[in-house]
């Protein structure tokens, strides 16, 4: 059977297209950015191409998908006038604005949905409040049905991230140095316990192991990861480990943290050392062993993400305005730098 030149071109084009997936990028808007961007990511080579503005928005510094990826949600970081924005995802990858609701606090820096896409939670860094919303079937977000206020008369809260896990809501409070656990009672959430970090640690983001036995908290201010192990209905701190190279003595601030899909490795970002730290994880006792610190080939690695197949890790370097791409060795967990591209003030990466 003869293969025509057109058929060959068509098949090559299909293969190329089929190995591309979308990467969405949340940014700080200004001279070089207008909102949320989308790139084509080649799952074979790790190349990023075809940058496209898919939604105009003010400071969409953190973005997240619904579990079916039909809707995308962003914070709109704008002081006291901040919001959560809801978008539907079009067939061409463009984002169609649905609606927005008040964040009920200044400068939200994180948004997340529960597994069945019925609730969203926003963490307001400057305001120190956490807002919880109901999500409608069409993806629209209602006004918050509950606002948690972590501020006290003597201590200022800086809520930095929150995650739903089963019937719990966990919140990292950088200002008050704890990870809070809330339980769902009827339709509201009530505080169960605060798990204290070291004073001045600054818990920022965290990862929960699949079964909820371990929680890994990355601390911005003292550049450590705290390992919490479930003990009956509570959690105990079993390890604090530095994210920095042993010979690094300058100022540095942690940002993001992610477990590999098989949970054998844990990754974190260091702003100052400008590196990604790699830990090997003991799956039985949950403890960590540091095995690599690799430069990010940029400045101020804010957020990073692991490609869905686990073969690549991508870093958003906020101050140098570039995205760096690494190959992941699935056996050792270690990273190898591949390349970097310029990007408009990237701060959040989402597959």
From TrEMBL:
This is 6-phosphogluconolactonase. GO terms for cellular component: cytosol. GO terms for molecular function: 6-phosphogluconolactonase activity. Keywords: Carbohydrate metabolism, Glucose metabolism. Belongs to the cycloisomerase 2 family. The lineage of its organism: Bacteria, Pseudomonadati, Bacteroidota, Flavobacteriia, Flavobacteriales. InterPro entries: Cycloisomerase_2, Haem_d1_sf, Lactonase_7-beta_prop, WD40/YVTN_repeat-like_dom_sf. It comes from the Bacteria. Gene3D superfamilies: YVTN repeat-like/Quinoprotein amine dehydrogenase. It holds the Pfam family Lactonase. One of its GO terms (biological process) is glucose metabolic process.
């Amino acid at each position: 059977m003869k293969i025509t030149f057109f058929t060959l071109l068509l098949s090559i084009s299909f293969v190329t297209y089929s190995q591309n997936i979308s990467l969405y990028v949340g940014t700080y808007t200004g001279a070089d950015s207008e909102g949320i961007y989308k790139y084509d990511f080649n799952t074979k080579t790790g190349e990023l191409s075809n940058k496209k503005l898919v939604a105009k928005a003010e400071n969409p510094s953190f973005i997240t998908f619904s579990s079916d990826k039909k809707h995308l949600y962003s914070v709109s970081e704008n002081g006291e006038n901040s919001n959560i924005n809801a978008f539907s995802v079009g067939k061409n990858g463009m984002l169609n604005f649905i609606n927005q609701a008040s964040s009920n606090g200044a400068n939200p820096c994180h948004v997340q949905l529960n597994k069945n896409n019925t609730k969203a939670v926003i963490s307001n860094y400057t305001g120190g409040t956490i807002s919880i919303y109901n999500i409608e079937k069409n993806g629209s977000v209602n006004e918050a049905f509950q606002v948690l206020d972590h501020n006290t008369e003597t201590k200022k809260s800086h809520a930095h991230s929150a995650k739903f896990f089963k019937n719990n809501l966990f919140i990292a409070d950088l200002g008050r140095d704890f990870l809070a656990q809330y339980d769902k009672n009827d339709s509201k959430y009530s505080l169960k316990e605060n798990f204290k970090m070291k004073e001045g640690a600054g818990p920022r983001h965290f990862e929960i192991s699949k079964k909820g036995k371990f929680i890994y908290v990355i601390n911005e201010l003292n550049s450590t990861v705290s390992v919490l192990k479930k003990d009956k209905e509570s959690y105990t701190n079993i390890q604090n480990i530095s994210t920095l190279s042993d010979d690094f003595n300058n100022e540095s601030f942690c940002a993001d943290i992610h477990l590999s899909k098989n949970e054998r490795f844990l990754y974190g970002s260091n702003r100052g050392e400008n590196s990604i730290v790699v830990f090997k994880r003991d799956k039985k006792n949950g403890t960590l062993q540091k095995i690599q610190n690799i430069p990010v080939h940029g400045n101020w690695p804010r957020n990073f993400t692991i490609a869905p197949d686990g073969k690549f890790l991508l870093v958003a370097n906020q101050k140098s305005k570039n995205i760096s791409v690494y190959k992941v060795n699935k056996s050792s967990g270690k990273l190898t730098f591949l390349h970097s591209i310029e990007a408009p003030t990237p701060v959040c990466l989402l597959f």
